Amino acid sequence: MTLAADFSSILVLIGMPLILFSADLPALKKLARPMFISFMMCTVAVIIIAIAAFFIFKGSVSDPQNISGMLVGTYTGGTPNMIAIGHGLGASTEQILLLQTSDMIGGGIYFFLLLSIFPRLMKKILPEYNFTGSSSMEEASQYAEAFSGKKQSVKPIKAFFVRVGLVSISTACVAVALGICLLLPSKFGNTGLAKLGEYTALIMLIVTTSGILLSFVKKIRTAPGSYSSGQYFLLMFSVAMGLCFDISAISGTLLMFCMLLIIQFGTVLVHIILTKLGKIDYHTMIITSTAGVFGPAFIIPVAKALKNDEIILPGILCGILGYAIGNYLGIGIGSLLRMFL
Question: Domain residue spans in the chain?
Fold first, then answer.
């Protein structure tokens, strides 16, 4: 069990930079002002609701600060952020897996609403979208390909060596983070590898920062397969974590699920209120909510449901921004809330 837990920790550390390598952050300048403002409103909303949920469930849910922190990252970026933040905050195996499962159920409900009645409801509350005719499907497809799971047109042998190179660079990022933390003083007199447990959050933040900085290197950012490779490592992480799962932890799942639903749908409600006050149109509100709650991979089907291709590219860019800032926000909020236990 300890071996599986240690192995899963390494997988998450290697997987996170791979997710971030494909983040084209300079392209964020293409975001229209209302789109950026709406995404920031969504981010503020999840922080407010996650903090409120922490105080509501503080006496009834185990480690509520971890849940709030993980969900801040999840509903800013995506599931990769949940796993990375959970690892950084020292959340238990059971807590991460149960929260991930709960998020799949809650997310499924919200995604169904997004594709059915939600757009018609928002149309009655928020202003209409002003079409500009500036749709660039070719450019949008370029960004969407990395998050859609489609096979890229690269020869198998070349693709293999490209992925090996990306994994090697990501592993080097992890080695640098571990090396830095080994040089730091221990609070409890630990030495060697035992000292690293004290700096789990810092290790994750250094690895995240390394992934973001390397995304500015064009050859790394445009290399095919970085996102899918990162997802593969996180999938292996889930399998390894499953080997450590304690079935007795299921007893607290209902309250955790209630906390998740309050954070998820409370975030959407506050986001609606903020966009109403800011006079943001309903297409922009819906696509930025999708970017926050689900991430880039879900932008296209929601945009198609809205019959608006113009919002695909900015929606994906918002999702990329969420991946980049999610770990910082989640670990920061989780660490802050721990002071109120």
Answer: 2-338
